Inverse folding.
């Protein structure tokens, strides 16, 4: 997997995005920050779209964060080929990769401390898709 990570948030995820980006950079990832770049109120669909398009373009992973993670994941999942998973714990992140081949991790910046978000992100980025019966199901998603 490419070590580029596309990341984006609205104002509700701005603080967590900054902390997570710094930690990922220290770990050797190249972080492509697509905004937002201040705490001013913005619209989460804009940033879900930016990250979804970047992921579709180069096949890297993405991370999206809004207050709950809900709105921005809905936005990203409008794009065919995007499988954005809103994860609240590491086990969700593991299963989102193993079973769903999720290519975008969604987080709720107002409901998660940095340490938990970092653990979830590490698991997400290191877990491989299992394929097999899961591939058949993931393939069906693109034909809905
Ligand atoms: C913004 O106030 C908030 O609605 C947004 O961050 C997100 O939680 C939407 O799903």
């Amino acid at each position: 997997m490419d070590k580029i990570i596309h990341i984006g948030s609205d104002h509700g995820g701005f603080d967590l995005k900054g902390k997570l980006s710094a930690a990922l950079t220290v770990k050797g990832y190249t972080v492509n920050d697509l905004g937002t770049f201040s705490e001013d109120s913005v619209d989460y669909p804009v940033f879900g779209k930016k990250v979804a398009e970047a992921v579709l373009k180069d096949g890297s992973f993405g991370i999206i964060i809004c207050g709950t993670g809900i709105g921005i994941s809905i936005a990203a999942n409008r794009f065919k080929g995007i499988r954005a998973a809103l994860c609240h714990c590491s086990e969700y992140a593991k299963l989102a990769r193993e079973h769903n081949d999720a290519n975008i991790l969604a987080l709720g910046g107002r409901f998660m401390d940095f340490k938990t978000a970092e653990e979830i992100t590490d698991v997400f980025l290191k877990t491989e898709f299992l394929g097999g019966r899961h591939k058949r199901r993931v393939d069906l998603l693109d034909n809905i």
About this structure: Residues 100 and 138 are 6 Å apart (CA to CA). Residues 10, 12, 44, 66-68, 70-71 surround D-ribose (CB under 6 Å).
